[in-house]
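Summarise what follows for lecture notes:
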Amino acid sequence: MVPYEETDLCFPQLLNSSCRKPIRPHFETMLIYILLSFISLLTAALNLLVIISISHFKQLHTPTNLLLLSLAVSDFFVGLLMFFQIVLIDGCWFLGDLMCTLYQYIAYITTSASIGTMVLISVDRYVAICHPLHFPTKVTQKRVQVCVCLCWMFSALFHSLLLKDILKQPGTYNSCIGECVIIIDHVAGLVDLFLSFIGPVTVIVVLYMRVFVVAVSQARAMRSHIAAFTLQRSRKVAAKKSELKAATTLGVVVVVFLICVCPYYCVALTGQDTMLNASSAYFVICLSYFNSCLNPLIYTFFYPWFRKSVRLIVTLQILKADSCKINIL
């Protein structure tokens, strides 16, 4: 039997217990390092701009924007967590069992909270488009705050129960030193799959199908009657157009989210993860992470207030007195 070369082991000094590094071309490794580092920094920076914008400017303190704030917070953490994914490029974990457990735990929470926020966004747009007269009374700042807090609390509590064994004893499932894995039993995995993917995605798709049908009918009605409206009704039309634009923007966010996340959960649902090679599995995971970088780019394209707030933040105008009262809309 030929012993491993030193470069093949995560910890060459621990010949019998160290994990073995996967063999990958140096150019490919460096390319992945650079690409993921760039995406990670961009994701964290862009979502930090969203967080500062919505938190600082009072005009942006609306129930819908509060949901965008919750989504930006989860996406910001995803950007930071990508640095840990970069550590695993060589197939070795050098930060210890405790950090491995915390990384996996926070990743589960942020992903679940992100999906929960997507459900809340769908409910928000459903009420705004399908029941516009009840929207100001049903979707209030206080209720949205409570829903967002419950979303994060439920995510933390559920995954604390799901990962209780690994939280009690980090590194339980590691087969060698330098590994960072978490194994969930079959029943718990199915429950997590339903609560974190199948259930939320079903709700999102059903609500947005309804929103799409109503939005199309409203758009046709506005086009056919807009010439006969008085000034007062024109204002109502402008308000309705604003709601439709918001529904379109958040619809794009939801669709992009599903495109990026579905491959990961589909692999988990079909149980084909063992048939994927390392590169394919890595691509599926990174695609789900990349969604967090796309959301602020969508806001930049669709929301003028975000572009304006970014200019004010970058030029340090927000440091001036009463800058929070600037007309941003």
